[in-house]
Every structure is written in structure tokens, then in C-alpha cells.
């Protein structure tokens, strides 16, 4: 009778000490100092999109924004008696004596409406333009003349 087969190995050799994935596909290197883009989480990718769009708009409108902060939340908090079928994509929180004005983008609803990374970046741009226009009390076309061109 032949000897029984050994149990199959579970997990990777690298994982046995809990250090996570290793190697050029995951770690920063000379060609990828910030790491490999595929290694970033959805939250990190979304934050990068918001950061780049906000920086572009802040460069042009920064002196009018009065130190407004940009923030990202996963989902909006909706009261139990919320009756609308529409979930907000962003919120504008006016300044108080202790906090500056905040423009908050809601990641999950925005990602849900986008068809891909390019569409998500365009949607984030459109939502930020709308929020800045509301904050400044000007038409969205004044913030970005390309708004609405599809």
C-alpha cells in the first residue's frame, strides 16, 4: 500500500510571518517610487483623484475659497426619515467660528455612478465645480467654462 499523500501547503511562504506580499509587484522601487498603482486600494485611488482635481481648482480659485477644506467620507449620513430616492454625492458645510468651510465628497455614491476611472475623475470634477460654484454664489460655467460639455 502506498504512503498517504502529504497535506497541501496552505498560504504562501512569505505570509507565514504576517509581513504581507513582497517583491517588485508590491514594494516601491526605482521605477515605481510610490508603489505599483494596482496595489492601491479603491479609497487611495479615489483620494488621489479628489486631491488632483481639488488642487487644480484651488490653483485657480484658491483666493476666493477662503481656506475651504476638501474632505472625503465613505457615505453620507441620512436621517431615518429620508424620503428622497436620490443619495447626495457631496455636501457643503459652511464655516463656523471654530471650523473652516468644508466640501465633503461621498466616495461610495460617486463610485457607484461612475463607469470607470476616467468617468469617476470627470464626475468628481463636475461635483467639485458645482460645490465651489454654490460656495461662491456664481454660475458653474464661471468656475469651469467646460462644465456640461459632454
TrEMBL record:
<protein>
    <recommendedName>
        <fullName>Zinicin-like metallopeptidase</fullName>
    </recommendedName>
</protein>
<feature type="region of interest" description="Disordered">
    <location>
        <begin position="1"/>
        <end position="42"/>
    </location>
</feature>
<dbReference type="InterPro" id="IPR038555">
    <property type="entry name" value="Zincin_1_sf"/>
</dbReference>
<dbReference type="Pfam" id="PF06262">
    <property type="entry name" value="Zincin_1"/>
</dbReference>
<dbReference type="InterPro" id="IPR010428">
    <property type="entry name" value="Zincin_1"/>
</dbReference>
Amino acid at each position: 500500500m502506498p504512503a498517504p499523500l502529504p497535506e497541501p501547503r496552505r498560504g504562501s511562504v512569505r505570509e507565514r510571518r504576517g509581513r504581507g506580499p513582497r517583491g517588485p509587484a508590491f514594494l516601491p522601487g526605482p521605477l515605481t517610487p510610490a508603489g505599483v498603482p494596482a496595489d492601491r486600494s479603491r479609497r487611495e485611488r479615489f483620494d488621489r483623484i479628489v486631491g488632483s482635481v481639488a488642487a487644480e481648482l484651488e490653483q485657480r480659485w484658491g483666493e476666493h475659497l477662503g481656506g475651504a477644506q476638501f474632505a472625503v467620507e465613505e457615505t453620507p449620513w441620512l436621517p431615518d426619515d429620508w424620503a428622497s430616492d436620490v443619495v447626495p454625492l457631496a455636501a457643503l458645510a459652511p464655516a463656523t467660528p471654530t471650523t473652516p468651510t468644508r466640501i465633503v465628497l461621498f466616495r461610495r455614491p460617486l463610485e457607484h455612478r461612475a463607469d470607470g476611472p476616467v468617468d469617476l475623475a470627470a464626475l468628481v470634477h463636475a461635483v467639485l465645480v458645482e460645490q465651489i460654484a454654490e460656495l461662491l454664489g456664481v454660475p458653474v460655467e464661471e468656475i469651469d467654462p467646460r462644465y456640461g460639455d459632454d
